[in-house]
Predict the structure.
Amino acid sequence: MKKLIPYVLCATLVLGTGGWGSLAVVASPTPHVAAAAQKNKLAPGVVASKGKQASVIIEMSEAPTVVYSSLSKTKKVPAKSEGEYRKYLGQKQKQLIAEMKERSPGLRVKRTYDTVFSGMAVTLKGDDLQKVAALPGVKRIHPIRTYKALMSKSAPLIGAPDVWKMHDGRKQAVTGKGIKVAVIDSGVDMNHPDLKKNMIGGYDFVENDKIPQDEVGHGTHVAGTIAANGKIKGVAPEASLLAYRVLGAHGGGTTDWVISGIEQAVKDRADVMNLSLGMDVNVPDEAVSQSLERAIKKGIVVVVANGNAGPATWSVGAPAASPNIISVGASTKIIPSPVVQVVGDNKKMETNLITSSPQFPLKGTYQLVDAGKGKKSDFKKIDAKGKIALVQRSGDDVQSVAENAKRAGAAAVIIYNHLKGDWFAIPMETDENGEPDTKRFVPIVTISGGFGTHIKNQLAAGKTEIKLSSVKREKMVDFSSRGPANGIWDVKPDVTAPGVDIVSTLPRSLEKTGYGKMSGTSMATPHVAGAAALLLQKHPDWNPEQVKSALSNTAVELKDTEKKEYSPISQGAGRIDLPKAITTQSLVVSNRLSFGLLQPKTGVKKIDRTLRVENLSGKAKRYAVRVELDNGKKGIRVTVPSTLVVGAKSQGQVPVTMSFNTSLPRGIYTGAVFLKDGKQELKVPFIALNEPKGYEVITSLGQSAYIISPNGKDEHKFTLLTYYLAVAPSSLKITAESSEGGKKYLLYQTNNPAAGYTDWMWDGKDSKGKKLPDGDYAIIVECEYLGKKAEANFFVLIDTKAPVITELTADADQLSGKVKEAWLEEVSWRLAGEKDWQIIEDVNYVEDGLFEFHHAFTKGQLKPGKNLIIVRVKDSVGHVTTKKVEIELPQ
């Protein structure tokens, strides 16, 4: 999921004169979400389908405990204890549950929340949602969404062993002792020899029991990276672990499970939360983001995986894009990267490996051949057998090039950027065992545009041999999701950590040795969670914001093959450096700056921001302040004071002013503010966006039904299409295009719709109220913003015809027939005069739109004499057809 917009940051409390009586949160949503305010309390994605059960999250009007606790300290609410307020909230929950059951008698409460979220997860009839929403005690009803897992030897990569030699204020080694880390994941193998000493509790919210056993290995691997203390050492080997299973056997989980894990982690007094999970959409996810943001307000450090959808810009997932969590990208370990040198030329040029590519050779001399853009026709023109092919990039997917080269007998491929600078390709497909597919592909690497052009020129000059070698260093990895965060226009990830081939613990039920390798931002994230545990042991008075800034300010900037720093939207501030973070004597807050989304060609815009500098030392400090721009140097000016003096144990401020000429090309512009005191230099990356071309103006988020029947039952008459607008477009139009003949129908249009979430209900009619014919339709939501057109697509089938039963026959042994229906749901039968229908299990697909069924009668099902048999057929939109057949048996 990719951005989370925390309402809690702008929440206020409405107080009456009667003590607790009218305590309630009144949310002031951020602009891009506020614009999507619903006419009722049903959040986007909640569908009130009649006749069907709905599982939802009910948010109460009362504030959760952590919000009350925070505000009571500021004396904005009555000074009651947290326990008293929790008791009060429990009473209000019981009262609301009773009121909801009056309006929805079948309502079932699955679990309640009172810590970071105020409410409950319930199941009720879809017909009753509006009735429940009308209750004063209900603030909002949220959908239950699905989250997934984003899939010691690595502790030294971030400097953990150096920190273990340090001591805290109690003269204990800094190993995480006394710090509780919550692993909100697929569970943990609690009996693993490297973990069992660290495990102090947990819960399984999937199976609802006290044993959060890991069935997929993901959570155990994450836990080992954080705190393994055996054959493998985690980053914080003496930290205590809490395991909350919120992802099921297939690695997926839902909103209610995730919130339950967050709730319990807060109740169990976790100091750090690790969530190596997310959704692959760059939009807010309200309920989970509120819970995480409130946990942070409670003083818990929250660390979340940035996602594995890279290398595309804007690919960060939710909840990683929530502003105050620490989102983590993935880098490689120190690994060998192939280096190319044309024989007879001194220039050595580094390349990028591609995830799951067959191993590229790291030494030797090869003949080189120019293979154009790597098409089949390009290879037919050359002799590539045994040679390395030089190919110009024409996209991020390089698999077809590797396949064409394989067919041509090439040894390998070097594919260079058609633009200036370095680049990453999309990870390649693996074989059936999850290994590089050497039968389909040759080894392939990418190289920068500058290096590629240089090689091509050397080749044109007759130099046809290349020499291969290697260099060992860290890099960003291709699959790591990139920012920025859509809609809030911010830098993400915050930091980076190793996430490739990480060796950690695995359940012995899955791997006999108990250890194995995994890759992903899921593996990078626990490095940062473990680092946070060490920082909190050394600095127990630090809050989550300070921990985040310490890790970010002191991070190591990783560089690409041309020795240029990766953009902040790839690496954040850089790869964390634990020794520097834990010994820093200064912090800069916030850890990043956003100058927002600007409209092009609107003149020079002046934007002011402020950084807070904290001097943690006992001496006054003088900081030298400077700015570096990554791009846009001719049209952007960022001014800061050249020096800043901050007294001992004091704070100061750095005003940062950007003048941005919006005549610059549309795009993403980044840079950083640096503050140096002696040998230590702190970094704060920043971003400004001049209406870049790559972000999604509109995102499709799902639909309540794929098949509708406007003439059918109420619950099948419509579908609810949910989409998200990152900005407010000038116009929006919804059309339906038939799959047969391509005829288009206008369904709806408007000007200047609001940004944010929208639920749009379609009942199969055009804008004039005329019903569309039966068939398959592509529903296209098209909008325009600053001359840029964007669309989201949905697919809906209209079916108003009932199934047709043909060739219905019966004898003493069997009932048979055929059904003409593309969307068959059920075939059943009964004898006339009986009430219960019996499902016919033997139903077989014959061809498109035709099924046949058979039912063998058992003894006693038919009676002597006349038997009138009724066959009933249902389709997926509620159409029902019945047909009778009579059989007479001997008396």
Residues 1-39 have pLDDT under 50 and may be disordered. The radius of gyration is 31 Å.
